[in-house]
Amino acid sequence: MVSKIRVLGGTPLRGEVTVRGAKNLVPKAMVAALLSAEQSKLRNVPLIRDVDVVSDLLRMHGATVDYDQEAGVLGITPGSINLPEDPVEMDKLAGSSRIPILFAGPLLHNLGEAFIPDLGGCHIGSRPVNFHLRVLEDFGARRIQEAAGMHLIAEKPLKAKPVHLPYPSVGATEQTLLTAVMAQGITELTNAAVEPEIMDLIAILQKMGAIISVDTDRTIRIEGVDKLRGYSHTALPDRIEAGSWACAALATGGDVFVRGAEQQSMTSFLNVFRKVGGEFDVQDEGIRFWHPGGELHSMALQTDVHPGFMTDWQQPLVVALTQATGISIVHETVYEERFGFTEALNEMGASIQTYRECLGGLPCRFGQRNFYHSAVIQGPTKLRAADIDVPDLRGGFSHLIAALAAEGESVVSGIDIIDRGYEHFMQKLRALGANVVKEG
Ligand SMILES: CC(=O)N[C@H]1[C@@H](OP(=O)(O)OP(=O)(O)OC[C@H]2O[C@@H](n3ccc(=O)[nH]c3=O)[C@H](O)[C@@H]2O)O[C@H](CO)[C@@H](O)[C@@H]1O
Ligand SMILES: C=C(OP(=O)(O)O)C(=O)O
C-alpha cells in the first residue's frame, strides 16, 4: 500500500480515465446478495477497499465470493449463512467502512442475530447511527451488548412497521430497504433518501423479487415477501469519482474524458460546473470535462440531499473555486465538519474562511450550533506546493488536485485513504500526464 507520494504540480491534466461502479452502491448490492441463498452476479465492480472489506465480511458469514478484478465481475453465493466464529476478527476489517451496519437486516432475517463491528468511514462529522438503530428497533430488533461493536437479536419473522426518518439519511434508507423487503407486512418509509445509488439498490431488490414503490414525496412503500432470489446487475457508475476528475480538469486547466460517467445522476453537478465556467460534452460513452481558457466564475451554492448538489462533490469543487474570480460561498448542509481540509489549502496559498452561520442558502440543521459549516472562498489564488496529510477520502483527493494545480513539488501523506473510493488513482493520474511518484 502506498502511503506517501510526491506530486510535481503545474501540468494541466489531459487524457482519459474510466470510472466503474459506484462506491456508494456496490458494497450495498453485495450485502443485498445475503437476502437469498442463490448466486448473485454484480458487474462493473471497481477495485476499491470497501469492496474488499465487504467481501471478507461476507466470507466470514459463510458466503462464497469470487471477484474477477479486471472484468469487474463479482459472484456471491451465500448458501446457508452463519454468524462468524470469532466476531472480534470482524473489527479488524471494519475500521474503514460504514457498510457493516447494513448487514443487520439480512442477518436478522436469516439467523435472528447479528454482530456488527465498529464502523469506519470518513471523519467529517459525528456520524451517529441512531436512525439505523431506531429502524431496526421498529422491526423488532434488540441490542444486547454494549461492548465493542453491536450485538442484535430479533424474533423471526421480523414485522413491518411505519418508519419515519428525521432526515433523509442514505444509510438509514438502505437499512430500512434491506430489512423491510422480507419483513411481514407493508413498510411505509417516509422522508426517505432518493439518491441514484438508492434507486439502483431498489432495482436490484426488485430483480430479486421484492415489491417496492417510490412516491414523489420521499415515501417508499415496501411489501414484504417470504423469499428472494439471486440477481444479475450492472452497477451504476460512480458519479462522485466522475465529478472529482471533472474538478481536477478544471483546477489544473486541463481536459479529461471520463469514460463511464453518466449525465442523469450528475445533473446538479453539471449545472454548477457550467456556472463556474467549465465546459463539458456528454457523449454516449462518457463525459468530457475541460477548462475553456479565460476566467472561472465564483458562485454561491449549498450541498444537499439528492437531487441537490451532493456533499461528496463539495471538497473537489472547492479546490476549483480557489481558481475562480471573485467570492464563492459554499454552505455544507449534510455534514457538520466537512471543511477541515481547507486548512491545508490555505497553507498552499488559498484564501478560504469558514463560518458557523448558514451562508449562501437556506438555514440548515447546523445553524447556531457552533459548527464551521459555511466557507467563503476568495479567488483566484496561486497555489504553491506543500507537505500535506490526507484527512479523509474526498478531502484527500482535493489535496491531490491542489498539489497538481500548484507550482512546485508537494508531498502528500496518508494517501492510501484514497483507495477507498478511487480505483487505480495513481495509474489514472499518470495516464493524465501528472507527475506523481511513490515515496519509499
Ligand atoms: C457509503 C455511503 O454510501 N456513503 C455515503 C452516504 O453516507 P451515510 O449513509 O453515512 O450518510 P447519511 O445520509 O446517513 O448521513 C447524512 C446525515 O445524517 C446524519 N445521520 C445519519 C444516520 C443516522 O443514524 N443519524 C444521523 O444523524 C449524518 O450524521 C449526516 O449528517 O451518504 C452520504 C450523503 O449523501 C455520502 O456523503 C456518503 O458518501
Ligand atoms: C463520506 C464518504 O464515504 P463514507 O460514507 O463511506 O465514509 C464519501 O464517499 O465521500
Automatic annotation (TrEMBL):
<keyword id="KW-0808">Transferase</keyword>
<feature type="active site" description="Proton donor">
    <location>
        <position position="122"/>
    </location>
</feature>
<keyword id="KW-0961">Cell wall biogenesis/degradation</keyword>
<dbReference type="InterPro" id="IPR005750">
    <property type="entry name" value="UDP_GlcNAc_COvinyl_MurA"/>
</dbReference>
<comment type="function">
    <text>Cell wall formation. Adds enolpyruvyl to UDP-N-acetylglucosamine.</text>
</comment>
<dbReference type="GO" id="GO:0009252">
    <property type="term" value="P:peptidoglycan biosynthetic process"/>
</dbReference>
<keyword id="KW-0131">Cell cycle</keyword>
<dbReference type="InterPro" id="IPR036968">
    <property type="entry name" value="Enolpyruvate_Tfrase_sf"/>
</dbReference>
<comment type="pathway">
    <text>Cell wall biogenesis; peptidoglycan biosynthesis.</text>
</comment>
<dbReference type="GO" id="GO:0005737">
    <property type="term" value="C:cytoplasm"/>
</dbReference>
<dbReference type="Pfam" id="PF00275">
    <property type="entry name" value="EPSP_synthase"/>
</dbReference>
<dbReference type="InterPro" id="IPR001986">
    <property type="entry name" value="Enolpyruvate_Tfrase_dom"/>
</dbReference>
<feature type="domain" description="Enolpyruvate transferase">
    <location>
        <begin position="9"/>
        <end position="429"/>
    </location>
</feature>
<feature type="binding site">
    <location>
        <position position="334"/>
    </location>
    <ligand>
        <name>UDP-N-acetyl-alpha-D-glucosamine</name>
    </ligand>
</feature>
<dbReference type="GO" id="GO:0071555">
    <property type="term" value="P:cell wall organization"/>
</dbReference>
<protein>
    <recommendedName>
        <fullName>UDP-N-acetylglucosamine 1-carboxyvinyltransferase</fullName>
        <ecNumber>2.5.1.7</ecNumber>
    </recommendedName>
</protein>
<dbReference type="GO" id="GO:0008360">
    <property type="term" value="P:regulation of cell shape"/>
</dbReference>
<keyword id="KW-0133">Cell shape</keyword>
<feature type="binding site">
    <location>
        <position position="312"/>
    </location>
    <ligand>
        <name>UDP-N-acetyl-alpha-D-glucosamine</name>
    </ligand>
</feature>
<dbReference type="GO" id="GO:0051301">
    <property type="term" value="P:cell division"/>
</dbReference>
<feature type="binding site">
    <location>
        <begin position="23"/>
        <end position="24"/>
    </location>
    <ligand>
        <name>phosphoenolpyruvate</name>
    </ligand>
</feature>
<dbReference type="InterPro" id="IPR013792">
    <property type="entry name" value="RNA3'P_cycl/enolpyr_Trfase_a/b"/>
</dbReference>
<comment type="similarity">
    <text>Belongs to the EPSP synthase family. MurA subfamily.</text>
</comment>
<keyword id="KW-0670">Pyruvate</keyword>
<keyword id="KW-0132">Cell division</keyword>
<dbReference type="GO" id="GO:0019277">
    <property type="term" value="P:UDP-N-acetylgalactosamine biosynthetic process"/>
</dbReference>
<dbReference type="GO" id="GO:0008760">
    <property type="term" value="F:UDP-N-acetylglucosamine 1-carboxyvinyltransferase activity"/>
</dbReference>
<feature type="binding site">
    <location>
        <position position="98"/>
    </location>
    <ligand>
        <name>UDP-N-acetyl-alpha-D-glucosamine</name>
    </ligand>
</feature>
<keyword id="KW-0573">Peptidoglycan synthesis</keyword>
<dbReference type="InterPro" id="IPR050068">
    <property type="entry name" value="MurA_subfamily"/>
</dbReference>
<feature type="modified residue" description="2-(S-cysteinyl)pyruvic acid O-phosphothioketal">
    <location>
        <position position="122"/>
    </location>
</feature>
<keyword id="KW-0963">Cytoplasm</keyword>
